[in-house]
Design goal:
370 residues
Length: 370
């Protein structure tokens, strides 16, 4: 668990105490080579058991018992405008996102935590996924031939007039060794609608599920919170590690689905899917902790997973077809389509859905270390 304590120095910089107190030698985010744990999928049962304990500990925020403990203290001087300064700010919110001034603090916190987890666990593996330049930031108040910066400062239409409610969309996407696309989207509409959308698509030669999560709010009330590992197996089963982690964390945080599933969702979501309308702040807090827990577990497992061998052509085809199936059924969500069409028109809405949000798997960007 990291603690960030900022204090201003005379030179204008601030110091962050990145203490990790009573941390285990496993490090939680990396396998412990000194203990001889390879952590690779398909390892011997005892090694697999140790990895599951380590992954669950990382997800739940508690160190596994029975392992040596050490105190690690690292103090760094963070200069304004530096990479560390930006990362520290994004750990506490939306950092440099344009929509940060509009989004509810809960959306800001969740967005910042997701992006920080990616950067912390993936590090130099990460690269920028090539989204269409004109769709990274979209604003219904701006003309398509205007620069995005101009759109951002355009006056909003008055309530009840043409163009109201104004809709803004902002996207960031990355790739890594094991993930072909890590997509994070923020949506703000001036009638109070806010959406945070996150999907982690593994590369087509990695036998890993697709992690998706969404948080939807209206007038500062969260109406939907959903998190799921969507399988990439034809029988729609999850790898045992994932099913076990999801079940354990759901029990730990006391989460149960209380919303019905749309037909398109029932075609792709797993039996461990959590879909709720939070009934209290405590339930929402539990969902946020659960979602960040499974996200960190997913990253840890992905870092320890080897690609599927090229000789296993049937498995590779299965993974690709199931990712295509996932995108196909996500595009059946008519609510999302109507929101986009009312703001941007049919043509732009379809292009946005199929090129930014749920683009079918094709030629993926490569990590610089591949």
């Amino acid at each position: 668990m990291q603690k960030l304590h900022g204090r201003t120095n005379s030179g204008g910089s601030h110091t962050i105490d990145c203490s990790v107190q009573r941390h285990t030698c496993d490090g939680l985010t990396r396998p412990c080579r000194q203990r001889g744990l390879s952590g690779r999928r398909g390892a011997e049962p005892t090694q697999k058991h140790c990895r599951v304990r380590r992954v669950h500990a990382a997800a739940s925020g508690a160190a596994p018992t029975g392992l040596p403990e050490v105190d690690l203290v690292e103090e760094k001087t963070i200069h304004p405008g530096s990479t560390d300064d930006i990362l520290a700010k994004e750990a506490m919110g939306m950092g440099t996102w344009r929509l940060r001034q509009f989004m509810n603090p809960l959306f800001q916190l969740m967005c910042g935590q997701i992006e920080t987890s990616w950067r912390h666990q993936l590090g130099f593996q990460m690269g920028l996924y090539p989204l269409p330049e004109d769709l990274k930031y979209s604003d219904s108040a701006g003309s398509p031939d205007q620069e995005a910066a101009w759109n951002f400062h355009a006056p909003s239409p008055a309530r009840g007039t043409a163009g109201w409610p104004r809709l803004r969309l902002e996207n960031r996407a990355y790739f890594s060794r094991a993930f072909r696309k890590l997509h994070l989207e923020c949506v703000y509409r001036e009638d109070g609608l806010q959406i945070l959308h996150c999907v982690m698509f593994p590369r087509l030669n990695y036998d890993l599920p697709i992690l998706g999560m969404d948080m939807v709010g209206k007038d500062d009330i969260i109406t939907l919170a959903i998190t799921d590992f969507s399988p990439v197996a034809c029988d729609r089963s999850l790898p045992p590690d994932y099913a076990e982690i999801a079940q354990q964390l759901q029990a730990e945080f006391g989460l149960e689905t209380n919303r019905s599933m749309p037909q398109w969702g029932s075609e792709i979501f797993s039996q461990q899917c959590i879909s709720i309308r939070p009934t209290s702040g405590q339930v929402l807090d539990s969902w946020m902790k659960y979602s960040l827990g499974v996200l960190n577990a997913h990253l840890l497992i992905a870092n320890d997973t080897e690609p599927v061998k090229a000789s296993r052509s049937e498995k590779l085809q299965e993974i690709k077809s199931q990712q295509e199936r996932y995108c196909h059924f996500q595009l059946q969500n008519d609510r999302t389509r109507r929101v986009l069409q009312s703001a941007f028109g049919v043509e732009t809405a379809e292009r946005y859905l199929q090129e930014v949000v749920f683009a079918p798997p094709g030629e993926s960007a490569k990590s610089p270390f591949e």
